[in-house]
Amino acid sequence: MTESSHRSPILVTGPARSGKSEWAERLALQSNHTVTYVATAQVNPDDAEWQARIAQHQRRRPPDWQTIAAPVDLLTPLQAATASDCLLIDSLGTWLANLLEQDDSLWEQTLQDLLTALIATPSRVILVAEETGWGVVPAYPLGRLFRDRLGRLTRQIGRIAHPVYLVTGGHVLNLSQMGTPLP
């Protein structure tokens, strides 16, 4: 593996409950690096169902993995990571939802800053992203904004990521082997 391919982020994408996070966790275990789980979810103690989802993710993680809560700031963990680290960022959809109030100009800067940090970090980075937009167009503006921004975010990261995996129906497809990237 060349140094440049080692530094390429890995993207794991797919629909809800497809196994994306589990596949990303497996890749992190196989990295033979010190793993830091970068959690983008905001803890809401009043939402028992959300707490149960977070607890399920926590139970799957090995006890030696460090966890960093980063609901908004992904740059700090990316900039602090070393070549011996593996960052598992779960998930981009949740992170985006936390930033959805940003106007278009600020969002563009946030997106560019993230892409720059992903390219610059010496660490192995595995990103989990939800796939939206395979169904109907949302009937409300905020839903359309979320879907459009997440689609563009995933596509931009997909341009610099290798490999890119699609997890659906409990199966993993390596899109980097099977697909052709758009120019």
Overall description:
With 183 residues, the protein is α/β, with parallel strands linked by helices. It has one domain: 3-Layer(aba) Sandwich (Rossmann fold). The chain is 45% helix and 20% strand. The protein is built from 8 helices and 7 strands; from the N terminus they run H-E-H-E-H-E-H-E-H-H-E-H-E-E-H. The protein has a 7-stranded mixed beta sheet, with helices on both faces. A hairpin with a 2-residue loop joins strand 6 and strand 7. Helix 5 (92-98) packs across helix 7. The longest helix is centred in the last third of the chain and has 20 residues, at 141-160. It is globular.
**Count of separate DSSP helical elements:** 8
Structure summary, number of beta strands? 7
Poorly predicted runs are 1-6
Give the CA-CA distance, first to last residue. Answer: 24 Å
CATH class category? Alpha Beta
Strand content: 15-25%
- The CATH architecture would be 3-Layer(aba) Sandwich
Task: Assign an overall shape.
Answer: globular
Largest sheet: 7 strands, mixed
Helix content: 40-55%
Mean pLDDT: 92
Radius of gyration, CA atoms, in whole angstroms? 16 Å
User: Could you state the order of secondary-structure elements as H and E?
Assistant: HEHEHEHEHHEHEEH
For this structure, the CATH topology is Rossmann fold
- Strand arrangement, major sheet: 3-2-4-5-1-6-7
SS-based class: alpha/beta
